[in-house]
Amino acid sequence: MSGYQNLSLFDIGLAAALIVVNGALSVALDLGLERKLFVAAIRTVVQLLLIGYVLGWVFAFNRWYVVLPLMALMTVIAGFAASDRGRRTYRGQRADSILSIWGSSWLIGAFGLFVVIRIHPWYEPQYAIPILGMILGNCLTGVSLGIERMTEELTSGRAAVEMSLALGASRWEAAQRPARQAVRAGMIPTLNQMAVVGLVSLPGMMTGQVLAGQSPLQAVRYQIVIMFLIAAGSALGVVGAVVLTYRRLFSRDHRFMASKLVERKARKRAA
C-alpha cells in the first residue's frame, strides 16, 4: 500500500480556488453571498490551521490538565454556536444550549472512551479530542434545530397551547406536541446520515484512517462505533435542550410565558 500523500500549500490553494465557483454562482443568481463566502473561506483556513498547531502541541505535551481545558473550550464554543441560531430566542437559551450539549456529549464520549475503546491513559488526546469533537459537531446541529423548532411550534401554536391550559391541561400536556416535533426535527439529520453512510458518503474518520493506511475493515469498525456515539449524543442533547426550553417557557403553576419568546433581531435592537 502506498504511503500517506502530503499536501503542499500550493495544493491547498488549488482547492481553495474552487470557492470562486460558489462566488460566481452567487453573482449570477444575485444571491448576495459573496462576502459571506469569502469570510467563511478565510475562517475555515484560519481556524483549521490554528487547531492544527494547537493539537500538535497538545499531542506532544499529552497531559490531562491540557486536554480537559481544550475539550471544555470546544464544548462551550459548540453551545454558543447552537444558541445563536433560530429566529426566536429567550433569556437563558445560551445556558440551556451549553448545558444540554455538555451533559450529553461528555456522557456519551466517556462511554465510548472508557467502555468501548478503552484507551489508556484515559485522556489520550489522539482519541479523546477527535471523538468528542465529532459528537459535539452533530450534537450542536441537533440542539440548535430542536430549540428552534420548539420555539417556532410554541409561537405558531400559542392559541392551542393556551386553550389547553385554560381547559385544565397541565403544562406538559399542553407542550408535549411541540416538544415531540422539536425532538423529531433535531434527530432527523443524524438519522439521515446513518441511513446513507457507506452508500452515499464515506464519513471523515473512516476516510482519514483509510488515507493513513489503516485497514478498511478496521476503519469501518471505528466508524460504526462513532456513528452510534453520535446518534446517542445527539438524541440526549436534543431531548435535554427541549426539556430545558420547556421548563423556561412554562411556569410551575402551568402558565405559558409567551412573553419570554422574542425575535432575535428585535432583541439585538433592544440591546
Automatic annotation (TrEMBL):
Residue stretches spanning the membrane: 12-33, 40-58, 64-83, 95-121, 194-212, 224-246
Region forming the signal peptide: none
Keywords: Membrane, Transmembrane, Transmembrane helix
Source taxon at top rank: Bacteria
UniProt main location, coarse: membrane
Subcellular location(s) per record: Membrane
InterPro entries, alphabetized: UPF0014_fam
Annotated membrane topology: Multi-pass membrane protein
Gene Ontology CC entries for this record: plasma membrane
Pfam family, one: UPF0014
Similarity comment: family membership: Belongs to the UPF0014 family.
Protein's name in the database: ABC transporter permease
Species this chain originates from: Caballeronia zhejiangensis
